[in-house]
Structure formats: C-alpha cells, structure tokens
Design goal:
Layout lengths: L1 E3 L2 H15 L5 E3 L5 H8 L11 E4 L15 H29 L2 E6 L12 H20 L5 E8 L6 H5 L4 H7 L8 H12 L9 E4 L4 E3 L2 E2 L4
Parallel strand pairs: 1-2, 3-4, 4-5, 5-6
Antiparallel strand pairs: 7-8
Amino acid sequence: MLVARRGDRLTALADRLAAEHGTATLSLPLDVRDRDAVADVLGTLPDPWRDVDVLVNAAGLAAGLAAFQDADPDDWDRMLDTNVRGVLSVTRALLPRMLERGTGHVINVGSLAGRAAYPGGAVYAASKAALDRITSGLRMDVLGTGVRVSTVDPGLVETEFSVVRFAGDRARADGVYAGMTPLTAADVADVVRFVADRPPHVVVADVLLLPADQAASGIVHREG
C-alpha cells in the first residue's frame, strides 16, 4: 500500500513494482497533515488491505536552515505538521486493527537530528526528537499486545530531502553531500526491511544508520 501526496509519483512506483516484481499495490494520494483525510481514507480501506502488517512512517521534511531567530514560522508548522502530527494521525488510524488482531509493526523513520541538534536545525531536530519519544512511549503502551514498534534513524541520505529544504535550490542541496559518500534511500529501505523481517519475539527497537563518512551531526569527513 503506497501513501503519499503526489499521485503521479505513486502511479510511477506502482507501475515499476508491477513490472519488476509482479507486486499488487493500492495507491492512496494523501497528505498526512490532513487529519480528517487520513482518518477517512485509512479508516475505510477495502479488503484485503484493511489488515496492515507493517506501517512505515516515512513522510518527513526539513524546511529552511536559517537561525531560529530568522526562520519562517510557516516552515515550523510545515515540519511539525508532517513530522509529528502526520505520524500521530496515520498511526492512530491503523493501530486499532493491529491491536484487534494481536499483531503488527510500526516502524518510524526518524533522524540523527532527533538525537542532537545543529545550527539552523532547532525545529527540525525537535520534531525528530518528538518522534523518538512518541516511538518509545507507544512501545510501552502496546506492550503485551503483539504489536511491535521500532525506529530507524539515518544520518546523511541523498534524496530530495535537501532539495526540499532549500526550496528547489539543487546546487545548494548538492553541496550538502559534496566530497563524501552519503547513504541512499535503498540503504535505509534495506535496514527497514531487516527490522520488519525479525521473528515475532524480536523487536529491533532503535537503529542509528550513518554513512561511513559521518560520525555525528555536523561531523563529516569530506575529500578535497
């Protein structure tokens, strides 16, 4: 089941999955910031899609890299609505069925930023720190129900993340990864799959995933 804002991207991905793997998909164009739409769409899933085995909360973004005192509050809202409230809404919509069935797995894609802030990243880091606390608290709340809860926290990953952060400035975005080898989306997906594939009695609660060229937020080895 594929859920994202851009229907054209969903269609392209569904077509690729069908062509390469014969995978059946259900594509749901949806903005996770819209709580009512999330409840409506995910609360009325058709069979056989109602029983979700694994939920991967991967929607997230950073907006801007200005110092706190110079940042646009609209950017704050966008990050908090997506990175925090979006996860709450989607998880709340799907968790009851998991609890009824006594099985399921919620995997949240966090960030190294949730463990340590950096200049210009106060609110983004706060949103990911909130996700970390939501993850650990949810794990406590569902203890004994058969539902597992995990988080995967990547460091630098070269996706559209920086393009979005810098409002389409690709040259500036490319500079984030200059002189080093970042993670790829496939690297993160591989770890998410590993976490999901553990036997029912095993919970990989927390994974920190870094490129070899990164030791911490802002501590990166670059050539040249």
